[in-house]
């Protein structure tokens, strides 16, 4: 391990076990590129403001880019306390004493806060792009499904027929909200802490507008104590990721149910299924189960960070180093899960006949019977009761509502006429719900158009 940036004040070096415990390079090396970006911007600004000479600043920037090249070419990122010490150590080794001027008017506290914002900003963009890919796949499924009807459930009991496109659109709505949330998180985090130094600001005549512009931040932070210790944006990202995982886990659950023998609505192709080591017949939905399970990791990351920041005294505390591993893990998990699910949803096949047949089971058009009466003037509550009795009679005689004769309907209420039989088919039921967002083909088509329109923003 190289000498510490702070060694001057100490008689003896940090013990090996303390060093290993204290270090963050094994995980904050992921910040390498953004750390260089921020350092180049800082050095440039120091040069413009005359805090360093133009030549010194240029030499430092060149040196930083050389390190970027060396690492890209395979130089190991190791042997330092953290990524900031690593970069500074390499810089001084390569360009000599002038490299020691890089840290003028800066602290690792505003440096790491800036790096994290730059990194999470990129992560928001990646999450948005991944969710967009997933919605594109769902839109293809929706387009294919627009002429098909499937059972809609409440309490996991067949409730009313729904349009297949409407079903897929429901998930697109959730993922669109997730995209909006990541975009809002990105916007809110795009405030630059650099220039706050350790906690109190700096006595050098820096120009924070220069670094803000160079790093693409919208604003500069207005309180140095807050700026160096604020990790709200990491918590926000983790919340956005948690909710996206919640939505994904619901789709997983549907996938697991719908591909079971008991439902049989969808098939997962062999390339995305797994088997059992003992039961030769098994075809298991391991991928959706894993994604559902990984939701817990992402929630864990959120709770972990919220607990880390709770009760921290102002300003920077080393506890904040604990933002990184949970964040990186959650980020990787989210991107992996969204991308594997886009691939899976592209490959599933729909058993449209099985879905259609199932949509007619469980008296799923009973509401249409009641609506039929209500539309002819019977108060809905009375219509509900009449229909309930018909359902009871059907259960007793082992019939479906569509098996009943007109005489049987009339015996329940004289309001029923011949046209009731056409009004209570599965198709008619789905088509009847033409309200915005409803199950008719036209409404489902409009739903697809609406998702597409909002997706275009991204
Ligand atoms: N590795 C540290 C972190 O992630 C960098 C900041 C260190 N600052 C300090 N004052 N020790 O938070």
Briefly say what this structure is.
The protein has 458 residues and is mainly alpha-helical. The protein has helices spanning 16-22, 25-28, 32-48, 54-72, 83-95, 108-145, 164-189, 208-215, 224-229, 232-258, 286-309, 323-347, 352-359, 366-375, 380-397, 406-412, 420-423, 426-432, 441-455; strands at 149-154, 157-163, 191-192, 219-220, 266-267, 349-350.
Structure notes:
This protein is mainly α. The protein has 3 domains: 7-104, Orthogonal Bundle (Fumarase C, Chain B, domain 1), CATH 1.10.275; 113-199 and 225-357, Fumarase C, Chain A, domain 2 (Up-down Bundle), CATH 1.20.200.10; 366-424, Ribonucleotide Reductase Protein R1, domain 1 (Orthogonal Bundle). It has 19 helices and 6 strands. Helix 3 (32-48) runs antiparallel to helix 4, helix 4 (54-72) crosses helix 5 (83-95) and helix 14 (366-375) packs antiparallel against helix 15. The mean pLDDT is 97. It binds arginine. Residues 24, 28, 82, 108-109, 112, 316, 318, 320-321 line the site of arginine.
**Mean of the pLDDT scores?**
97
Please report the total strand number as a whole number.
6
Structural class: mainly alpha
Adjacency order of strands in the biggest sheet = 1-2
Give the total of domains.
3
Q: What portion of residues belong to β-strands?
A: under 5%
How do the SSEs run, as a string of H and E?
Answer: HHHHHHEEHEHEHHEHHEHHHHHHH
The count of helical stretches stands at 19
CATH architecture of the largest domain: Up-down Bundle
- So what's the overall shape? elongated
Ligands, deduplicated: arginine
CATH class of the largest domain: Mainly Alpha
Helix content: 55-70%
Q: The biggest beta sheet, please?
A: 2 strands, antiparallel
CATH fold-level assignment of the largest domain: Fumarase C, Chain A, domain 2
């Amino acid at each position: 391990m190289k000498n510490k940036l702070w060694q001057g004040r100490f008689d003896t070096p940090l013990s090996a076990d303390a060093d290993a415990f204290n270090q963050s390079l094994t995980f904050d090396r992921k910040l390498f590129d953004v750390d260089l970006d921020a350092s180049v911007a800082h050095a440039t600004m120091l040069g413009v403001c005359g805090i360093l000479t133009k030549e010194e600043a240029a030499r430092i920037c060149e040196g930083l880019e050389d390190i970027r090249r060396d690492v890209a070419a395979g130089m190991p990122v190791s042997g330092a306390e953290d990524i900031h010490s690593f970069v500074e150590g390499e810089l001084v080794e390569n360009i000599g004493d002038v490299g020691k001027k890089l840290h003028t008017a800066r602290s690792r506290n505003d440096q790491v806060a800036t790096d994290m914002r730059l990194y999470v900003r990129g992560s928001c963009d990646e999450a948005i792009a991944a969710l967009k890919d997933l919605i594109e796949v769902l839109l293809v499924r929706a387009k294919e499904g627009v002429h098909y009807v499937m059972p809609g459930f409440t309490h996991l009991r067949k409730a009313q027929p729904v349009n297949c496109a409407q079903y897929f659109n429901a998930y697109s709505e959730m993922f669109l909200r997730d995209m909006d949330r990541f975009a809002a998180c990105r916007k809110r985090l795009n405030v630059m802490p650099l220039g706050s130094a350790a906690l109190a600001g700096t006595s050098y005549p820096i120009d924070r507008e220069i670094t803000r512009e160079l790093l693409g931040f919208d604003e500069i932070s207005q309180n140095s104590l807050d700026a160096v210790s604020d990790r709200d944006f990491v918590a926000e990202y983790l919340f956005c990721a948690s909710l996206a995982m919640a939505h994904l886990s619901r789709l997983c659950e549907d996938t697991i149910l719908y591909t079971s023998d008991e439902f049989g609505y969808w098939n997962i192709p062999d390339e995305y299924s797994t088997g059992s080591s003992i039961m030769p017949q098994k075809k298991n939905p391991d991928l959706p189960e894993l994604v559902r399970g990984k939701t817990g990791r992402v929630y864990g990351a959120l709770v972990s960070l919220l607990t880390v920041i709770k009760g921290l005294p102002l300003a920077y505390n080393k506890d904040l180093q604990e933002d990184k591993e949970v964040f990186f893990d959650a980020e990787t998990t989210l991107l992996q899960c969204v991308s594997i699910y886009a691939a899976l949803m592209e490959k599933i096949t729909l058993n449209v006949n099985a879905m259609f047949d199932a949509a007619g089971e469980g008296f799923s058009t009973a509401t249409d019977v009641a609506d039929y009466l209500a539309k002819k003037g019977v108060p809905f509550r009375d219509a509900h009761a009449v229909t309930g009795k018909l359902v009871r009679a059907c259960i007793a005689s082992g019939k479906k509502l569509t098996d009943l004769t007109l005489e049987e309907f009339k015996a329940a209420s004289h309001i029923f006429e011949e046209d009731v039989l056409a009004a209570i088919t599965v198709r008619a039921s789905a088509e009847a719900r033409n309200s915005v967002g409803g199950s008719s083909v036209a409404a489902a088509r409009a739903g697809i158009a609406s998702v597409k329109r909002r997706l275009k923003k991204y």
